[in-house]
Amino acid sequence: MGFKSAVVRFIRSRFGASKDLGKMAFGRNSGIDNDIKEKYGFDGELLRLFAANQGPPVHKWHHYIPLYDQYFSRFRNSPVRFLEIGVFRGGSLQMWRRYFGDSAVIFGVDSDPACDELNGQSGQVRIGSQDDPNFLEHVIDEMGGVDIVLDDGSHQAKHQIDSFKFLFPRMSKGGIYMVEDLHTSFWRGYGGGYGRNSNFFGFSTDMINDMHHWWHFDRLKYPSLKNMCSGIHIHDSIAVFERGLAVEPTHSLVP
Ligand SMILES: C[S@@+](CC[C@H](N)C(=O)[O-])C[C@H]1O[C@@H](n2cnc3c(N)ncnc32)[C@H](O)[C@@H]1O
């Protein structure tokens, strides 16, 4: 690497510059469904719902589709209570309605009052900010509880963390909390930055340490979330938290 490119790289990393997403756009000629099938070996209904969408726009990174299915498929055709933070044009709510089925309780929240006109189309839409606990509490009450949360809202690290701290303890056991577009954790404009503790990956690291609290002597970072998380999965730009009951491990030597 030349000196100049090393300096550019250092400055970008240091100041959390955003990547040029235009360069990562997919050339449509080969087909979105083929791209997902070939790269990720996934061929399920969600692929068709996404790739053949003719309704309101849905913008998703291709590798999210198999991940959604991996974590959400067991809730299909059940009265799952699903909350999406970030409604935008309503495209994803429509996709989720088709995916989860008629018996699902689907709510979306968005801070943009224009989203109110989507209320009642594929699910219920409520207007408010994801960092407002009173608003979130009201929404959860209306839903009768929540089994899945998908955070695709402001992508601001502080909002992601505040929403998680409020919603996660209120989820049903066996539920899934997913946060997407976590590449923003590297970008200053979203409260991120490479290796910064204050971004969502820093928070996730604290959660990993807390989940292992019986193995070390350090204090819990989030005592209010103690023993509520039974699994944490990190994928590219996606974090998944399993809401369960964590119990101290036991071991045996058999026979
Ligand atoms: C990426 S878009 C959501 C896209 C949608 N989930 C989809 O896949 O079609 C992000 C949305 O989050 C909303 N938003 C921004 N800040 C927010 C906040 N503090 N609370 C709730 N929603 C917010 C924006 O208005 C925008 O509609």
Task: Give a written overview of the molecule.
The structure is a single chain. With 255 residues, the protein is α/β, with parallel strands linked by helices. It has a domain of 169 residues: 3-Layer(aba) Sandwich (Rossmann fold). Helix content is 32%, strand content 17%. It has a seven-stranded mixed β-sheet, with helices on both faces. A hairpin with a 2-residue loop joins strand 6 and strand 7. The termini are far apart. The structure holds S-adenosylmethionine (SAM). The site of S-adenosylmethionine has 20 residues, from strand 1, helix 5 and strand 2.
The major β-sheet equals: 7 strands, mixed
Fraction in helix:
25-40%
**CATH superfamily caption of the domain at 75-243:** Vaccinia Virus protein VP39
CATH topology call of the domain at 75-243 = Rossmann fold
Spans of at least 5 consecutive residues whose pLDDT stays below 50 are none
Terminal-residue CA separation: 57 Å
Morphology call:
globular
Question: SS-based structural class?
Answer: alpha/beta
- The strand count comes to 7
CATH class of the domain at 75-243: Alpha Beta
Query: Per CATH, which architecture of the domain at 75-243?
Result: 3-Layer(aba) Sandwich
Rg calc? 20 Å
Strands side by side in the biggest sheet? 3-2-1-4-5-7-6
Bound molecules: S-adenosylmethionine
Oligomer: single chain
- Number of helical segments? 8
Q: Would you list the SSEs in sequence order as H and E?
A: HHHHEHEEHEHEHEE
pLDDT averaged over residues: 94
Strand residues, percent: 15-25%
